[in-house]
Amino acid sequence: MPITILDYVKSVVGDKPLYTAEDCLRNGVDILGSCQVCAATIACYNAYPSTSGYWRCADCIGEDGFATVADFTTHTSRTACPACGNTDTITETRITTTDQADEYALECGDCGEVWQP
Ligand SMILES: [Zn+2]
Ligand SMILES: [Zn+2]
């Protein structure tokens, strides 16, 4: 089976007898969500992050999950600011590139860094 959101939280927080909502929220994941496919309510221990960026339940994750926590973090870390590492204040923007094209970019609300993913 692919990893669950809880596996990810465990890898960051370390082994604990109980994981709280705080543990999840502090690491940028919700404690409750719904499956992208069947809309079942799922919690972090049975929610599987998919490559689409949405959560799925055990029945719907199929081949779209992440085999390891490292795969998951590599995939999601694209949205972290390359300058300050912030992941909370990233917004989408448009920039004019050197050849006058209008292109998609991301902007960090914290330090003002603008980059193209
Ligand atoms: Zn489902
Ligand atoms: Zn930044």
Order of helices and strands: HHEEEEHEEE
Strand content: 15-25%
DSSP, total strands: 7
Helix-and-strand structural type: alpha+beta
Strand count, sense and barrel status of the largest sheet are: 3 strands, antiparallel
Computed Rg: 16 Å
The proportion of residues forming helix, as a percent range, comes to 10-25%
Task: Please report the number of helical segments.
Answer: 3
**Small molecules bound in the structure, each named once:** zinc ion
Poorly predicted tracts of residues: none
Shape: globular
Spatial strand arrangement across the major sheet: 5-6-7
Q: What distance separates the N and C termini?
A: 29 Å
Mean pLDDT over the residues? 89
Summarize the structure in words.
With 117 residues, the chain is α+β, with helices and mostly antiparallel strands. Strands 5-6-7 form a three-stranded antiparallel β-sheet, with no helix packed on it. Strands 1-2 form a two-stranded antiparallel ribbon. Strands 3-4 form a two-stranded antiparallel sheet. The mean pLDDT is 89. The protein is globular. The protein has three helices and seven strands, in the order ααββββαβββ. It has helices at 5-13, 21-26, 69-76, and strands at 32-34, 41-43, 48-49, 55-56, 90-96, 102-108, 114-115. Bound molecules: zinc ion (2 copies).
